[in-house]
Design a protein that fits this description.
about 200 residues; alpha/beta; 2 domains; 4-stranded parallel beta sheet; 3-stranded antiparallel beta sheet
Amino acid sequence: MSYCSVCDAPLFRGRVVALAGVGELGLHAATVLSKFVRKCYWVFPGPDPGADPSAVEGLLSKGVVELVPRSRVVEIRGRNRVRSVVVREERAEQLRELEVDGVFIEMGYAPKTEFLRGLVELNERGEVVVNKLCETSCPGIFAAGDVTDVPYKQAVISAGQGAVAALSAYNYVARLRGLRRVTRDWRHVETAGASGEGLLRL
């Protein structure tokens, strides 16, 4: 099961997958998957995917994506790996089992930050607003990962933010205690002569 079609679609080259997704996120995922997989069942709860109709029509013309409207994935079956998904067709109240090799989830996300409202600045989507040092609007509180307003919700970006937030938090405490802080940047870079060889001094 994957939450990132861009990351994992190549791993399912020539295979059959199910996609639970809506709107432009679902369309983007289906488009990416269609370049790699043999077949993609696009499952969504409404009568249509909720994305640009012309783009959806163009995608369907490739013959890779099959729409499964008014349906929800209610069970993922398999041992050690995905074997199938069970889909409930809401209007007919029937269950349908689809044999697949993988499942992609692209339903969007909602940051759970209500407990922070009034403590730190949140944007209109409820994401925590941070600067490049992962500092929030409240001194001493740092944030990192998908919950922040930094774009591109990827694990590698969240990991990098986590490192920045940790170092920033360390420096904050060190400053309060009068301790030596972690240097943030290179002090300077000198370029040596016309040979083009660079000399890096810290």
